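Example S7 (structure tokens).
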């Protein structure tokens, strides 16, 4: 949690509870309440666990080091963090655009031909 969230939660609960819990009720009750609230506002299929996937994806979009993301997620294996991380469609579009820009450089075709072993490929103009 970032500082703003921690301060808001401390204010809500009066910070009289030093149990270390975010919510003053069980995990099951938190998940059930969250899902009910999401359903009430028209977010079908959203669960408390969805927030873990969103958190991991937002870390990746912010270019947070994958090992730092792993630690923040509480994973032992970085592959599990990868499982939770989903690439936004806009991020994928930007990646393709960067590739398109790179292919417009005059030496791109020559570099591709050298790495692929092709012969007699003319550089792009």
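Recovered sequence:
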């Amino acid at each position: 949690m970032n500082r703003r969230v921690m301060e808001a939660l401390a204010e809500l609960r009066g910070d009289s509870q030093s149990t270390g819990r975010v919510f003053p009720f069980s995990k099951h009750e938190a998940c059930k309440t969250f899902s009910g609230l999401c359903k009430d506002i028209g977010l079908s299929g959203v669960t408390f666990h969805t927030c873990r996937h969103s958190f991991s994806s937002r870390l990746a979009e912010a270019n947070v080091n994958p090992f730092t993301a792993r630690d923040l997620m509480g994973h032992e294996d970085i592959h599990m963090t990868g499982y939770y991380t989903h690439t936004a469609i806009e991020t994928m579009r930007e990646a393709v655009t960067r590739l398109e820009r790179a292919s417009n450089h005059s030496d791109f075709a020559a570099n591709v031909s050298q790495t692929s072993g092709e012969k007699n490929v003319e550089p792009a103009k």
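Notes on this example. The first helix runs from residue 3 to 13.
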